[in-house]
Each structure stands twice: as structure tokens, then as C-alpha cells.
Automatic annotation (TrEMBL):
Its main location: membrane. This is OmpA family protein. One of its GO terms (cellular component) is cell outer membrane. PROSITE patterns: OMPA_2, PROKAR_LIPOPROTEIN. The lineage of its organism: Bacteria, Pseudomonadati, Pseudomonadota, Alphaproteobacteria, Rhodobacterales. It is found in: Cell outer membrane. Residues 1-19 form the signal peptide. Keywords: Cell outer membrane, Membrane, Signal. It comes from Ruegeria pomeroyi. Pfam families: Gly-zipper_Omp, OmpA. InterPro entries: Bact_OuterMem_StrucFunc, Gly-zipper, OMP_bac, OmpA-like, OmpA-like_sf.
Length: 221
């Protein structure tokens, strides 16, 4: 890659980032309903600029601009779709223990193990099945996405046991999603055991947060 290509892509990236940072609306409030869509457009624009500059040997600057426009449009569409999906899921799921996080390029539906499974069990409690069935119905309405089901534990007990338990719990949740109509080819499962905490394992509160199953919804182009 030549220095000109790098400069074009880097320059456009800086402009896009500066524009986002100096948006008056973003400075005055953090409640912009289109925040994730804008983030998606920004990410798409940055990636598109880099690809466009590399692809256009004759005029990397023009290639960067074209790539940025295409990438921003695609990223904005993804961001808008995720905003809509997150809002719908929050309305549909009655359980306050389930959290829905829109990162700008994916949704993470986090289900605490304490409300989903009995201790040392990988059988989903009857009371949570209806919520997981609602998640499945939602995923059926939005087929253009892949779904990762990831099991997590705290650090209590043997690491090898925790790994196996996280795998079984992820599989149990995935089975309910598939039974609800989500096709097999869209779903993958992963057990992380105690290896990916989101809080300290030194407190009961932290351990409770770490015990979870995450349903990660990733849009597919």
C-alpha cells in the first residue's frame, strides 16, 4: 500500500470522526434515538474509506470517498435496524432481569443464569421459556442475522466443570431458539466458562453478573 492511499483513508477517517464528535446534538444530550444508527454509519464510512482507497489504484482519494459513502449508507441501515429490534425486544420481554444492549453493530441479549437455571443445572426453568420463545419469534421476523449463544459462569468451582456447564447451558438456550423456528444454520453456540467476566468474581454481586447466557444477534449483509 502506498503512502498516498494511507493518507487519503486516514484523512477521511479523521474528518468523519471529527464530524461525529462535534455534532451539537451529541454534545447537548445522550438520549439521541438515532445514536446507534449514526455510530453504524460512522463505522461503515471509516471501513468503506479504507477499502475504497486500497481498491482504487488510480485515484485513492476518490476511492476513499466512494467507499466511505457506500460504507456509511450500509452502516446506517444496520444501525437503524438494530435500534428498531432493540426497542421491540424491550417491549416484548417482560422480565426485568434480561438486558438488551445495542453496540452499534450487534445486539446482545443477556439472560442471567440465576433466573434461567437451577444451581448446577442446564435445564431452562419453565418461567424463562416463554421469554426465550419471544426472542425466537423476534429472530424469525428478522432472518438476515446470525445468532451466537454464549454461556458464561463465575469462577467458583473447577474451571473444567465450569467450561462444560457453560457449553451445556448455551446449548439448552439454543435448542429453545431452534424449537421456536430459528433455523439451525443461523445459530452457533460457545461456552466461555469463567474466562470472560464482566464484573469482579470477588463479590457475590459480581459473580451473579458473570453467570449469564448471551444471545448475540449479528446482522448479515
Amino acid at each position: 500500500m502506498t503512502f498516498t492511499k494511507l493518507s487519503a483513508a486516514a484523512g477521511l477517517t479523521a474528518i468523519l470522526a471529527l464530524g461525529a464528535c462535534t455534532d451539537p446534538a451529541s454534545l447537548s444530550t445522550n438520549t439521541d434515538p438515532n445514536q446507534k444508527a449514526k455510530q453504524g454509519a460512522l463505522i461503515g464510512g471509516i471501513l468503506g474509506a479504507g477499502v475504497g482507497a486500497i481498491a482504487n489504484d488510480s485515484n485513492p482519494g476518490l476511492g476513499a470517498l466512494a467507499g466511505a459513502a457506500i460504507g456509511a449508507a450500509g452502516g446506517g441501515l444496520i444501525g437503524n435496524s438494530l435500534d428498531k429490534q432493540a426497542a421491540e425486544l424491550r417491549q416484548e420481554l417482560a422480565n426485568d432481569g434480561i438486558t438488551i444492549t445495542n453496540t452499534g453493530d450487534r445486539l446482545i441479549v443477556s439472560v442471567p443464569n440465576d433466573i434461567t437455571f437451577d444451581t448446577d443445572s442446564s435445564t431452562v426453568r419453565p418461567g424463562l421459556r416463554s421469554d426465550l420463545q419471544k426472542v425466537a419469534a423476534h429472530l424469525v421476523r428478522y432472518p438476515q442475522s446470525s445468532v451466537q449463544v454464549i454461556g458464561h459462569t463465575d469462577s467458583d468451582g473447577e474451571a473444567a466443570y465450569n467450561q462444560g456447564l457453560s457449553e451445556r447451558r448455551a446449548g439448552a438456550v439454543a435448542d429453545i431458539l431452534q424449537a421456536g423456528g430459528v433455523t439451525y444454520d443461523r445459530i452457533s453456540t460457545l461456552g466461555m466458562g469463567e474466562n470472560s467476566p464482566i464484573a469482579s468474581n470477588l463479590t457475590p454481586e459480581g459473580k451473579a453478573r458473570n453467570r449469564r447466557v448471551e444471545i448475540v444477534v449479528i446482522p448479515r449483509n
